[in-house]
Amino acid sequence: MTDKTPIVVMKGITIEFPGVKALDGVDLTLYPGEVHALMGENGAGKSTMIKALTGVYKINAGTILVDGKPQQFNGTLDAQNAGIATVYQEVNLCTNLSVGENVMLGHEKRGPFGIDWKKTHEAAKTYLAQMGLEAIDPHTPLSSISIAMQQLVAIARAMVINAKVLILDEPTSSLDANEVQDLFKIMRKVRDSGVAILFVSHFLDQIYEITDRLTILRNGKFIKEVMTKDTPRDELIGMMIGKSAAELSQIGAKKARREIKSGEKPIVDVKGLGKKGTINPVDLDIYSGEVVGFAGLLGSGRTELGRLLFGADKPDSGTYELNGKQVNISDPYTALKNKIAYSTENRRDEGIIGDLTVRQNMLIALQATRGMFKPIPKKEADAIVDKYMKELNVRPADPDRPIKNLSGGNQQKVLIGRWLATHPELLILDEPTRGIDIGAKAEIQQVVLDLAAKGMGVVFISSELEEVVRLSDDIEVLKDRHKIAEIENDDTVSQATIVETIANTNVNTGKEA
Amino acid sequence: MTTATANKVKAPKKGFKIDRQMIPTLAAVVIFILMIIMGQAMFGTYLRLGFVSSLFIDHAYLIILAVAMTLPILTGGIDLSVGAIVAITAVVGLKLANAGVPSVLVMIIMLLIGAVFGLLAGTLIEEFNMQPFIATLSTMFLARGLASIISTDSLTFPDGNNFNIISAEIKIIDRPKISHDLTINVGVIIALLVVVFGYILLHHTRTGRTIYAIGGSRSSAELMGLPVKRTQYIIYLTSATLAALASIVYTANIGSAKNTVGVGWELDAVASVVIGGTIITGGFGYVLGSVLGALVRSILDPLTTDLGVPAEWTTIVIGLMILVFVVLQRAVMAVGEKK
Amino acid sequence: MAEKAKEEGNALVKKLLSNNLTWSVLAFILLVIVCTIFQHDFLALSWNDNTGGLAGPLITMLQESARYLMIATGMTLVISTAGIDLSVGSVMAVAGAAAMQTLSHGTNVWVSILIALAVGLAIGCINGALVSLLGLQPFITTLIMMLAGRGMAKVITSGQNTDASAVAGNEPLKWLANGFILGIPANFVIALVIVILVGLLCRKTAMGMMIEAVGINQEASRMTGIKPRKILFLVYAISGFLAAIAGLFATASVMRVDVVKTGQDLEMYAILAVVIGGTSLLGGKFSLAGSAVGAVIIAMIRKTIITLGINAEATPAFFAIVVIVICVMQAPKIHNLGAEMKRKRALKAQAKAVAA
Amino acid sequence: ACGSSNSGDGGSSDSGKKVVGFVAVGPEGGFRTANEDDIKAAFKDAGFDLQYSPTQNNDQQKQIQAFNKFVNDEVDAIILSSTEDSGWDDSLKKAAEAEIPVFTVDRNVEVKDSEAKKAIVSHIGPSNEWAGQQAAEFVNKSFPDGANGFILEGPAGLSVVKDRGTGWSDKVASNIKVLESQSANWSTDEAKTVTAGLLDKYKSENPQFIFAQNDEMGLGAAQAVDAAGLKGKVKIITIDGTKNALQALVDGDLSFVIEYNPIFGKETAQAVKDYLDGKTVEKDIQIESKTFDAASAKEALDNGSRAY
Ligand SMILES: Nc1ncnc2c1ncn2[C@@H]1O[C@H](COP(=O)(O)OP(=O)(O)OP(=O)(O)O)[C@@H](O)[C@H]1O
Ligand SMILES: Nc1ncnc2c1ncn2[C@@H]1O[C@H](COP(=O)(O)OP(=O)(O)OP(=O)(O)O)[C@@H](O)[C@H]1O
Ligand SMILES: [Mg+2]
Ligand SMILES: [Mg+2]
């Protein structure tokens, strides 16, 4: 197809984990100067393939050639030395160090007396600037920036190595449209300098925009390698999910707005809810059966507001009324007791309990609300697990596996099951579709609509304006930790409306404490 | 994007330069000074040069051990074997010195023995997945056992050995009364050099940065392509070798040793490190904090004596003092977090 | 057919080999064999009319293991929450001191026992409060309590090794450590019953899962509505209480508390027992059965040392070697050795084929 | 509790009392507590201000630190109850330079340096070797035709353990066979376990005596012997002479107790007083100890004079 010599050739890669064959004879070829996408559903084996290449997992069969030489990396260090830079799916940085230190770890600039910190920080600054993060002081603790920005820091870090191969595993899952464009700019530049880029994303638009070539996996098996420009969407989706795209349930149209009847009481009615330094006082009401979307740019405070509603952080101002009754939601337990549930955007640190099984992860919140000494009867537990495994289509369908061994997308589904099992009246979903494949994304969106139809109040936080606009009845727009607008989402409202609102509203920063 | 990201993070306020992570260490400084002032006010001897001199001379070994212990603790590990390594190297060293082996050679052998135990601990941890606590507990038992198999006698250095170079006192201020002299010895200088070494290692080498990274998250450090395994070996090798160095300084200082030396010193070292603001689960901490911690830990004993604490109560009072210390630190940190 | 059976058999062997418990039990059996070689009647049991129970080396070993069982059980729960309890040895001394001191001052023996248990529980609660409410680090908190506890024991007895062996009416306590139930040491039976009760409490309610959840990911647990502080408080309290029982076993055995020696270094043994039993010091999944086997192994190692007549000087080294061997055998690297070599060979062959 | 300020030049406290620093081992029960309590009481009675500094885990380092601190505090005299018999040269040299007299109690220390030697005025205490010898002589006398038995030792490496062992070996007859020596770490509880194991192991050799190097271990051994139904058939000899041991002797659990007399506070205080008053003091003040059999033990207990 091309006369370039490939830089990476992986042939017949097989990886087995106890009980699962995650990869079964998969081939992958990377050419310099190309962006290559690894496509597949959640759990198809994309991340595993990447980890096979970088030596994180040992392969059971197959060969890896890098630059024509057979290689067996014993870890990422070896891979790095061979010119492969990787940004893994879950952000893997050290939260105890500063942003600059994270960018430069292992590549600090050295002077006559060991590390020259001044030079190192300067270098870090230029790499950060490349990612559009010039506003971040390299000395800022990593723990104080949001997940999305950490993702960008991780990418900046990958640029430090003068790599021949750059691997990006779902780098865009938490970025907003602007940042994606900036990332693409950098990717194009890097590509044009002759680097091979391996890219994973569940956003088809992005795939068609940036990639040249695709390798499609399904259930750990190699399906096909194709050129992007020759492959229509339907065909691609078909190859990924193994059935025709038409069968995929699609919620095309925008949801009809649920009209609030006069005299109807909201489930949640908060006034002036805020916390100094995190989110300025917000008024908000959520009615039964309503989907309220939170829209805003990165760091606008959507997550923070969600956490306050759930009691994960303690508010320092405001009143909180639940079904007309004044409540004090001081911690997640109280929230759950009051039938409020919150699904976090930070799946790894605040969501999954890694070593526990899928079953335990699904039941634990329900168990916690019932109390330690009232175990859920086995029959009931089985029924719950069974129900949500099926409803959410969790794969593999074995609930007795530790959740940490599931692919990212499937972990997310289990977590949603966890919250549904508590039968909340108000469900706060923070980035529920992040990192979820197209099939599952539609499923989750459908779940949200179904829940609302059954009378649940839903807060839907997402960086994808498209789905916020499509699913919400009302949209709360946030900017710089202020609520700047509440938009009734009728037919006149589109993504552009929101973007304009954000751009044109000036936050009176003087108000900030 | 530039406009989008520019308002994501506010430029940090200028002037607020003190890192939150440094607060516990600073608290250690303040409390140490307060303790000295309190001792001086109540008993009038804590600012005597003699007191200061023996604080350093008598605790040069602890300073070295505290630096040694800082490395594994920063990664979330621990080295329980340091006390026992002091014992075995001391016993072997004195045996050799008494057999007429030249002092320099003896010292080298002592350091090598320390290194061997460090290597063993590193191997158990890295190759056999043993947790540092258990691995170094095993090497602790092993070293202590071997030390007593070799000899249970009180051994003293023969005349005319060169160990006394280390203990030879250098009077900086010589007053008529010994309690007003400012004295140091080579042991103290060695301890200070070790502190400098620790500082440079942690803050100016890539190995040091890897140590912090491992403490933050070992799996992240591995995925970031840092030489985690090699660094782990270096850590336990260094801490054990420094323990051997502490042994040299200590034995030279008192001119004798036996198999029971160093019982419980690992806990003193851990206490020093923690008092100095290093978090036992790793990731945060400073060598200089550990040094201060060692000094604070050292000053607790004379304080209890001077306060006339009844014998049965001494360990309770020492425990309470450490408790007050960590609680204060915790409070200071909580206030810092709020800000 | 036969192939399949063989394969299944292989899988079973593999599963067994990678199970920590297998190696612990194997180590135990090995120690017994070594002892029997040295002392041919090591396994012999006889009836002792004097005590009204079985007698023999194994019996005294079980008698000693009772206290390890207790502290190892508490330690398991604490370690599961990613904590550690270094104070158990000192708590043993304090509880023992409280029992002996009150007893020798004429307190009713049952009241003495209750006081001892209450003291242990109280110290456990203090540990729990410091760790959970103030958020202090477990290692340093319990290290402080280890120091202070020794002091408390000394304060209780004014520095004496209080002896209550001659106090009238001390029989129930004496029986606790020296008596027999159906010929089997009473303390061992009681300890076993307690371990089983704790096990049931953990596994039949959601306590075990919640403890593990907190140990694996405290923040995520909080978000599910678990109250990590409660759990932390609970495990330290349990550990203190069980350590008090261990303290009663240790002191009632000779009806005398030794303010320095009672429980000395036993925190280390307890931690070893837990690790040998397969619970990770990093927290998370725990196995009480594993820890129980670990506790018995510790008692067995000590018995072996006496039986082989290993010199006092060499005991720590012997201990170290046994522990290192057990832990090394448990390392995944060792059981995967065969498979790993096969994998490497296969890959090499493939690589050669490609290169050619 | 924090009254004494030592800032005065002569080191005397405000009240004009002479200040004496006591570098001690710390309360460990039995002999140690009795000894240190007695010294504290005696110095108080003699009108001294005694500053007491215990160590932990028998750690010599903490003792050295305390010693050096007393030198810096310019106390009038130092009492040293050392955990180790060597390693004191440097500290003693400092004391000599500061002209502070040092009195060693219980354990003698070995000093090489001649400068350091000058600091030590006197040693006060009973003899460990003598105690070991008494044990051997009792066994020799009890079993003229020879016998088998065990020795329960203290922790390996302590000089007390060695001295008591040396005393035993010096005097024990050739037909007395020690089947095994094991350490029971001075602990009653461990001694019970160890003895039970040894009795099992050497059942066929018919052990007839157990020499426990302290009372604590002897009492543990007695319980193991009792449990094995051998009470009276195995003679147990212990060193220290605490009340509990004497009671056990009366009850027939033990056979012979050698006193290691901890009560020498008076003698020590007197020596310090004499020296500070300018009188000459004997270099070595041996403290008399007794031996007890059942009869003399009963007598000693009945007249109620025993302090520990
Ligand atoms: N360490 C492991 N142990 C056992 N099974 C694992 C492990 N890691 C991954 N798996 C399994 O391997 C399969 C492939 O997972 P992988 O993470 O590669 O999926 P993915 O294609 O990256 O999915 P996603 O889009 O959700 O990130 C999944 O079925 C997963 O459960
Ligand atoms: N752990 C944290 N500690 C301190 N500050 C934080 C932390 N997490 C986020 N922030 C800051 O709080 C602000 C709001 O972040 P938040 O995560 O709520 O934004 P968001 O609107 O939810 O966007 P996204 O979730 O897409 O990043 C940001 O400025 C961010 O830097
Ligand atoms: Mg993935
Ligand atoms: Mg967010």
UniProtKB/TrEMBL annotation, chain A:
**SUPFAM superfamilies to which the protein is assigned, alphabetical:** P-loop containing nucleoside triphosphate hydrolases
Enumerate the UniProt keywords alphabetically: ATP-binding, Cell membrane, Coiled coil, Membrane, Nucleotide-binding, Repeat, Translocase, Transport
Membrane topology listed for this record? Peripheral membrane protein
Q: Short name of one Pfam family for this protein?
A: ABC_tran
Where does the record say this protein resides?
Answer: Cell membrane
The record, for PANTHER family, names: CARBOHYDRATE TRANSPORT ATP-BINDING PROTEIN MG119-RELATED, GALACTOFURANOSE TRANSPORTER ATP-BINDING PROTEIN YTFR
The protein here is known as Sugar ABC transporter ATP-binding protein
Automatic annotation (TrEMBL), chain B:
InterPro entries documented for this protein: ABC_transp_permease
What Pfam families has UniProt attached to this entry? Answer: BPD_transp_2
Which GO CC annotations does the UniProt entry carry?
plasma membrane
Compartments annotated for it: namely: Cell membrane
Coiled coil ranges: none
PANTHER family reported in the protein's UniProt record: ABC TRANSPORTER PERMEASE PROTEIN YPHD-RELATED-RELATED, INNER MEMBRANE ABC TRANSPORTER PERMEASE PROTEIN YJFF
Return the protein name: Sugar ABC transporter permease
TrEMBL record, chain C:
Task: Name the GO cellular-component terms.
Answer: plasma membrane
Q: Which UniProt keywords apply?
A: Cell membrane, Membrane, Transmembrane, Transmembrane helix
Q: How does it sit in the membrane?
A: Multi-pass membrane protein
A Gene Ontology molecular function term of the record: transmembrane transporter activity
Where would you say this protein principally sits, based on its record? membrane
User: Pfam families under this entry?
Assistant: BPD_transp_2 (PF02653)
- Which InterPro entries does this chain map to? ABC_transp_permease
Q: Which branch of life, at top level?
A: Bacteria
Q: Where are the transmembrane segments?
A: 21-40, 68-97, 109-136, 180-202, 231-254, 266-284
Q: Where in the cell is it found?
A: Cell membrane
Question: What protein name does the entry list?
Answer: Sugar ABC transporter permease
Taxonomic path: Bacteria, Bacillati, Actinomycetota, Actinomycetes, Bifidobacteriales
